[in-house]
Amino acid sequence: MNKQDTKDVHVEFDVEKYKEMLKNVKSMKDITGKDGLIQTLLKSTIENVMKAELEDHLGYAHNDVRNKDTDNSRNGYSQKTLKTSSGSMEIEVPRDRQGTYEPKVVQKYETIDSEFEEKIISMYAKGMTTRDISAHIKELYGADISPTLISKVTDKIMNCVTQWRSRALDDVYPVLFFDAIHYKVQSEGKVISKAVYVCLGITIEGRKDILGLYAGENESASFWLSVLTDLQARGVKDILIACVDGLKGFSEAIKTIFPKTEVQLCIIHQIRNSIKYVSTKNKKEFLKDLKSIYQAPSQDLALENLGSLEKKWGTTYPIVVNSWIKNFENLSQYFKYAEPIRKMIYTTNIIEGYNRQLRKVTKNRSIFPNDESLLKLMYLATKDIMKKWVQPKWNWAQTIGQLALIFPDRLPLSLH
């Protein structure tokens, strides 16, 4: 409030009340703590100032109907919670019947302190929309924080996203999983489908780490090529095994940047894509025959069983069978490894588990307003998810030892 606003303000205090409070003061907490002397004095001051503000707004004093020159009038009080240095405090805000009075001494929030920022960012990371957060803070704290202001707070996260996405990476990753998850995003007045490209790496120490998140158009090998180029620019020199779905051209894109990398196609993706083209009456039998291939004890036996599949089903389902024959080399890479490595790379379950956790967070967002909004939430959710990750159950000492033997001179010397 400026001088013009306060010149006629008359604040009334209950002197006897404060004298009584002073008699009961036994510690500094009784003075500065919640519901202490200072907070009680502050509450009384603010409420009296607001009464004076409303009087000035209406143009007549309380019960002075003779000097009333307006069809507006007082209309009781509403409750509001204020945050103070000594804790939250309930105050009574006077109202007018027409709803035109806005308190000047207690304005709507124009800035947010660091504590509120942390709360907002935490709620945003859990998938709450800016409007949900605004309503939640209003309910819990009585604070009017607009969705626009909340969006400005979360916009600060983009600097963290940029730094995180450009951070230096390890020289070598034993295993990398690649996948994409799709969302609806507004773009130039239209709603389009966008893919968030995800890279999940297994480090030399056996830890899971999200190396990058990239928003692009629908999943394509050409965009994956740009992702791989970014990984290389950030320091990745070698990937031993890359686990991917069956996207056309993806394996070739990997070989372009990392020519020594072995590509393992996800068996589960291949099965899902296959079974879509098999009639219901044949699905059970067809799946049993597929199982004899991907669960065979050796690659030779798997190849033999693939030949049997072709003889039995090649005429009925030529597209499906030919897909297994064409992709067999990349589908069967895992046969050369011992059981612990097979279990790790035979499907993309590790990254799909991460994707499921992302979907839990984003289920309230049918459409994102832009790429930045999408990436902000992906980043915050990822940081939350990674906090809960524990060391995988596989025997990593045995696994890395086997990889060092299979890929000589491609892992740090200290591991040999």
List keywords for this structure.
alpha/beta; 5-stranded mixed β-sheet; elongated; Nucleotidyltransferase, domain 5; 4 domains; 18 helices; 416 residues; disordered N terminus; two-stranded antiparallel ribbon; 49% helix
Explain what the structure shows:
The chain has 416 residues and is of the alpha/beta class. The protein folds into four domains: 1-105, no CATH class; 108-155; 169-264 and 365-416, Nucleotidyltransferase, domain 5; 267-347. The chain has 18 helices and seven strands. The protein has a five-stranded mixed β-sheet with strand order 5-4-3-6-7, with helices on both faces. The protein has a two-stranded antiparallel ribbon with strand order 1-2. Residues 1-11 have low confidence and may be disordered.
Explain the layout of strands and helices.
Layout: H1 3-6, H2 15-23, H3 28-32, H4 37-58, E1 74-84, E2 87-96, H5 114-125, H6 130-141, H7 147-155, H8 157-165, E3 172-187, E4 190-202, E5 208-216, H9 221-233, E6 238-244, H10 250-257, E7 262-265, H11 267-275, H12 280-294, H13 299-313, H14 318-331, H15 339-345, H16 349-362, H17 371-387, H18 396-406
